[in-house]
Design goal:
- It contains 9 helices and 2 strands; from the N terminus they run H-H-H-E-E-H-H-H-H-H-H.
- The protein is mainly alpha-helical and 187 residues long.
- Strands 1-2 form a two-stranded antiparallel ribbon.
- It starts with 8 loop residues before the first helix and ends in a 5-residue tail after the last helix.
Length: 187
């Protein structure tokens, strides 16, 4: 297992709790942003628990395991790919692929939806610049061939909506049973 992968449900919850201490320059912690994203997805897609949990954990790539075993922020992370690696062993391929594809979905929407760029927060515009900007035509075609394209677009739109400072979403522990239901049994 990768060193920075969540070992079990308790470790994933610890990573989420630790993410409450870090603001990604938008006045909202990673945890609060994830909780808001998950709540939006739960309201819009109540039957897709994997999509909801992907919303909860989609930005955990900004966290890494420190030398003392605790979780700490890593502002240099490739947070989409790193996040997918953090959750794949525990939560499986679909959730990891959604986490790993949420940046590509932003680039796709910028390329294909003329109004989308205007919905991006200042931080999302800043990160778009170093994430590759607008997709090329070839990248758009490849993205459109993904089996999870619609779920990725849904996750990305919820990601942009979930940046309301002061909005209270459910506590992280309200997601424990959903995470436990999706978690792979290690052995």
């Amino acid at each position: 297992m990768q060193r920075d992968a969540a070992r079990d449900v308790d470790d994933l919850i610890a990573m989420l709790v630790a993410s409450a201490a870090w603001d990604d320059l938008e006045g909202l912690s990673i945890l609060d942003h994830g909780l808001q994203t998950a709540a939006i997805l739960r309201a819009e897609h109540p039957d897709d628990v994997e999509l909801q949990v992907a919303g909860l954990v989609h930005d955990l790539g900004w966290m890494h395991r420190a030398s003392d075993g605790t979780w700490a922020p890593d502002p240099r992370a490739a947070h989409d790919r790193d996040g997918a690696n953090r959750v794949r062993p525990l939560l499986g391929d679909r959730i990891a692929d959604l986490v790993g594809g949420h940046v590509a979905a932003k680039r796709y929407l910028v390329a294909t939806d003329l109004a989308y760029r205007a919905t991006l927060s200042p931080r999302s515009l800043e990160t778009l610049a170093f994430q590759g900007e607008t997709m090329s035509d070839a990248e758009v075609r490849a993205f459109e061939d993904r089996r999870d394209r619609d779920a990725l677009v849904t996750l990305r739109r919820a990601d942009e909506q979930a940046k309301v400072i002061g909005l209270t979403a459910d506590d992280v522990n309200t997601w424990r049973s959903a995470i436990e239901g999706l978690a792979r049994v290690s052995g």
